[in-house]
Design goal:
The chain is α/β, with parallel strands linked by helices. It is built from 3 helices and 7 strands; from the N terminus they run βαβββββαβα. The longest helix has 16 residues. The chain is globular.
Length: about 180
Amino acid sequence: MRGYFGLGVEGISKPRNVGSLYRSAHAFGGSFVFAVAPAVNVREVYQSDTSEAAKHMPLYEYGNADDIQLPKGCKLVGVELCDDAVWMPSFRHPLQAAYILGPERGSLSPEIQEKCDHLVKIPTKFCVNVGIAGAIMLYDRQISLGRWADRPIRPGGPTEALPEHVHGGQIIRSREYTYDDKGE
């Protein structure tokens, strides 16, 4: 899969939820994890993060929304059950993304929502545990951006193997490409 992603939380207060999120990020191939104004020491999450994700990828902590620093071109994607959010099955994931989820028993702050390039909601009847929501979002990214065999018409797995990837011809660029402040 091309691109990269990070996974973060705002105002989270339960170490096991942080651990679950960071473990999911690690399992799905995350590049970094982060926390904004955590109400827990995010380094004390090893009961649920048995992969010790923070030892294998960078962990960033920020005091508030204004402190967040993402790599150039990285889009901040808020996962929030709100009217302005796009339904996840209709959302195209950016190649370079940082997903952020809100606290338990709460929502992303207005400051974080304003900072987000995209807001996405998971199609559920009500809010699910923050650790579950993060795993669902990363699974959707994996399914959307990964290379998988087509689903068969009938129940069960694919009946044909995934065809070999065909590389295109050589591309020769005659000028340097630059990115603006938004990474486009």
